[in-house]
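LAB NOTEBOOK - FOLDING QUEUE
OPERATOR: T.R.
BATCH SIZE: 2
PURPOSE: Compare the predicted structure-token outputs for two unrelated chains run back to back under identical settings.
PRIORITY: normal
REVIEWER: second-year student, initials M.K.

ITEM 1
FIELD SEQUENCE / FIELD STRUCTURE:
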Amino acid sequence: MNAAAPRSPGELFVVWALIALQSFGGALAVIERTLVRDKRWLDAKEFVGTFGISQALPGPTGVALCVLLGDRFFGLRGAAAALAGFLLVPAVLVIALTTLFAHFQHLPWVEGALRGMGAASVGVVIATALRMARTLRGQSMGIAVALLAFAAVAFAQLPVGSIVLTLGAASVAWAWRAIDR
């Protein structure tokens, strides 16, 4: 169980705004580090479970995750505060950056910066996947599903939607069967 909890919806707003400001191009690594290691609002297993649920919900995973956690700690007020923190500040920043980009997009250093940000995002995703994989130690079902999903996307180049539906249904059936035993 989590060792700490946010003190108020205001704290949820600030933490999610900071997460969003640190995580352009992919929030998972920042969310996991902040919620599990820095704030200790969740342990690693709670994070993986909540993250899994948020992936099954419609819309962006980060949005679903912040709403789930906001609701968990402060109900509707917490969900609204977390969501506002996650979306409001970055939206204002994106609008400002888009305006600047329209004026400077032709400059070579801007193009190079965008290529560098893309490469950094790939590294962050890989590092997060490796860190989250440690949580799956000893869980053959989780490891099998993760490897199958990776192979289906990376090598077979199957559509992500069909992989989520197929492996998701298979995982639920497998887990249900394991629980019945």
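ITEM 2
FIELD SEQUENCE / FIELD STRUCTURE:
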Amino acid sequence: MDQTERHILDQADHAVFVLEPDPKGVPRYVACNGYAQHHLGKSQGEILGRTAEEIFPGPPGKVVYDHHVEAICSGQARAFETVLPYRDGRRLTRTTLTPVCDGDGRAVLR
């Protein structure tokens, strides 16, 4: 992700994450905006390259991770709600996943 794309992410007034499947198909965070970092109380170094299960230990991380895998495997957009730990307490969070797909409907890397 280049500097211009990162700047665009930082204009959003809500958490924005970008995931890409690694060579084994595991969805990993490859970008996030400043809003997400601030409200989660985590640095980019604590987020990038990790999975939802690594960032949000326990049941919430597993739920989010499973939705990530399903969106990648299906190539279909998904929306869900879950309670996640923020730096100032737990919050109900609504997430929308929108995979970027090839002509055959498979999620692709940029």
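REVIEWER COMMENT (ITEM 2): The longest strand covers residues 78-86.
FOLLOW-UP: none requested
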